[in-house]
Here is the input.
Amino acid sequence: MRWLTLILALLILALQYPLWLGKGSWLKVWEVDQALKKQLAENERLKSRNASLEAEVTDLKTGYEAIEERARSELGMVRRDEIFFQVIDEPGAAPAPGAPP
Here is the structure.
């Protein structure tokens, strides 16, 4: 009877091995689930970035405000009826009161 119990216990262990440590084990399923959650979060981040880029492209295609804003900030352009003033701080001069450091 002792041999039969030992054989059955070994058989149970042999059947449990694939469940816990085999190719489709619980550990592998958990790892794949974690990777899936990480990928879904990355996909959501990229979807929001794509939506903002699509809105910017649409704005650039249809409106002139975005084009004007880019021309002013990136190229330093001004309109014909505007006067551009450039203020240069002298080195070593104390900043004006209330000015950010």
Q: What stands out?
A: The chain has a mean pLDDT of 84.
